[in-house]
Amino acid sequence: MCIIVLYTGKKMDEKIQLITKYQQVAEIIEEKIKTGEYLPGTKIPSERELAKQYSISHMTANKAMSLLVAKGLLKRVHGNGTFIIGDGNFISTKLVALAIPADIQNHPLFYPLLPDALQTQGYFPLILNTNTPDIFEKFEKVMEQKPKAAIVEPKPSLVEKIIRFEQYENIVFIHHPVPGIKEKKFNVIYFDYVAAGYAGMKTLFSLNKKKTLILSFERIPGSNADLFLKGCENAMNEFKIGEFHCVDTNKMDETDFEKIFLEKHFDSILSLGDFRIIPVLKVLQKLGLKVPDDIFIIGTYNTPWAEIYGITSISINQQKIIDDAILCIKENRKGYVKRVEPYIVFRNSCPKIERR
């Protein structure tokens, strides 16, 4: 058996012990917990950092951590690190399950903004990517740990199952409206897609644009596309000018876009999603149409795509949704419902309306 001596200050110098590496590292960490150097609820250094600090292998650091977990001093939170427990209930009172899309390449709306905000407020976010097939099974397992709360950006199928989740009500739904929960005490903080469609169309009408192509996906009753288009229709009915033509971009290719532009002679584009605009920009260039000289463009979600391509975009006001969700958790709210209004971030593709 390999024996080493680690020097960790006067107290340990006076009391040098010859023990195995992982046991000595575990004792050092335990001593720091007892003396308050590591406080309950705080994250301890990673295994890699411990290995470097004490000149040991990653495997040895892992073994030391496992020993302290077995003794009830540490708790591993999957995807978020290892924390000092102190009071055995401490982690549960700070753990927040996050069921949200988390595929970073798709620029998800609430990742990493939401987990970062929760950590800043002293919570331990546990991320469950809703773009996985077994999301509800994972959600159930996490809820068995009785976390402080759960924040869910719901898919319709996930909502139906969660609503039937009788054992737990401390859930905050964000982004989308959730029908059929009147008898429940769930919190809902949703973005007003009707107001977004209205704001986009009103802006184009105010700039004297009268033929708008709307880029969306299939219009299913109650979907984001349905709500967005209702807002567009509301603007048309109010202003009594203009017309729009909506297409499902999932069923369109470059040739289809060329054909429709040549036939309809659009003077503006309103897109439910910034990413839907990118393939169309290539078509506009091919047809010799310049943005914004010949055609104005407004996107939605104010994603990095909008910044890169200089696209005016309708923001869903993520920060407001995040702030309200955290407030629900802090104040243990039940049955709180909040509608969040959009705002437009103007860039090169569409000028800002001059206020008179």
Model description:
The chain is α/β, with parallel strands linked by helices and 356 residues long. It folds into three domains: 10-75, Orthogonal Bundle (Arc Repressor Mutant, subunit A), CATH 1.10.10.10; 90-192 and 318-342, 3-Layer(aba) Sandwich (Rossmann fold), CATH 3.40.50.2300; 193-316, Response regulator (Rossmann fold). 38% of the residues lie in helices and 19% in strands. The chain contains 14 helices and 14 strands. The chain has helices at 10-13, 21-34, 47-53, 58-70, 90-94, 113-120, 135-143, 156-163, 193-206, 224-239, 254-264, 278-286, 304-309, 318-330, and strands spanning 74-77, 81-84, 95-100, 124-129, 149-152, 171-175, 187-191, 211-216, 243-248, 268-271, 296-300, 312-315, 337-340, 343-345. The protein has a six-stranded parallel β-sheet, sandwiched between helices. The chain has a six-stranded mixed β-sheet with strand order 9-8-10-11-12-14, covered by helices on one side. α10 links the parallel β8 and β9. α2 packs across α4 (58-70), α3 (47-53) packs across α4 (58-70) and α6 packs parallel to α14 (318-330). Residues 1-18 have low confidence and may be disordered.
The CATH level-2 architecture of the largest domain is identified as 3-Layer(aba) Sandwich
CATH topology of the largest domain: Rossmann fold
Question: Level of helix content?
Answer: 25-40%
Q: Regarding CATH, which class of the largest domain?
A: Alpha Beta
The biggest beta sheet, please?
A: 6 strands, parallel
Note the total helix count: 14
First-last Cα distance: 83 Å
Tell me the fraction of residues in β-strands, as a range.
15-25%
Q: For the residues shown, what is the average pLDDT? A: 86
Order of helices and strands: HHHHEEHEHEHEHEEHEHEHEHEHEHEE
Number of strands: 14
CATH superfamily of the largest domain: Response regulator
Radius of gyration: 27 Å
Give the count of structural domains: 3
Runs in which pLDDT lies below 50 for 5 or more consecutive residues are: 1-18
Structural class: alpha/beta
Shape: elongated
How are the strands ordered across the major sheet? 4-3-5-6-7-13
